[in-house]
Amino acid sequence: MGLLQRQPPLGPVLLLILLSVLSCLGPSLSLDLIPYTPRVTAWDLEGKVTATTFSLEQPRCVLDGHAGAGDTVWLVVALSNASRGFQNPQTLAEIPASPQLLTDSYYMTLPLSLDQLPCEDPAGDSGGVPLLRVGNDHGCHQPLYCNAPLPSPGPYRVKFLVMDTRGPPKAQTRWSDHITLHQGKAPGSIDTWPGRRSGAMIVITSVLSSLAGLLLLAFLAASTVRFSSLWWPEEAPEQLRIGSFMGKRYMTHHIPPTEAATLPVGCEPGLDPLPSLSP
């Protein structure tokens, strides 16, 4: 009867597998999880979410105790479907730049120090609204960590990552909720054919057009009456209108000759009166 081949015990094998898994997950498990969720700023601002940018509130009074004076706070931007698969870089050379958003669906940008995120009341801050505008660098002033405009509506998710001066990460926040950018409508897709409008809209448009026409006619009539009264005043109907000139017409009235009063003979003016017949 041949010797049976002895199997190694399962305990050491499982222990080796567990250690290998822990060695791979060690850097992630050793990170401090900061109980903070990034979000779009709550300030009532126009354009806080556009077609290529969105504005986050600054993580003030959040990273104290998790970051030192020499540490760097990074913003990780990822497409929502790629956020779960993102692996934190272990060195500065592994930090993904903005072009990798098109290939890997994530990148890191906006490196900040702790003194750039002071723990003061935003209302008393003279620097304006405390926010971080993602996608605002159209000129890419930092090519390596460019904050370039976002190329698509997303949705996106972001988190803050604290990295040591030597590179390894020390702490991270939670991932944000889904952030979707505004998507403009293509000019060619806008329907301008009135045949597809509702009946009520057509009636309203017709009524408004008729009212506009009536108002225009009333204005023209009022203007005509006004200017005609200036050219031909009513108080002088006898005036003659010749072209653009006016002249008064003078009527000569016939004055019949006055008949001379008949006087007795000898009573003509300048003659001596008749002698008295009385004795």
UniProtKB/TrEMBL annotation:
Signal sequence segment: 1-30
Annotated keywords: Membrane, Signal, Transmembrane, Transmembrane helix
BP GO annotations: negative regulation of gene expression
TM regions (residue ranges): 199-222
Protein name, per record: Uroplakin 3B
Superkingdom assignment: Eukaryota
Species the sequence originates in: Prolemur simus
Matches recorded under CDD domains: UP_IIIb
Cellular component GO terms, alphabetical: membrane
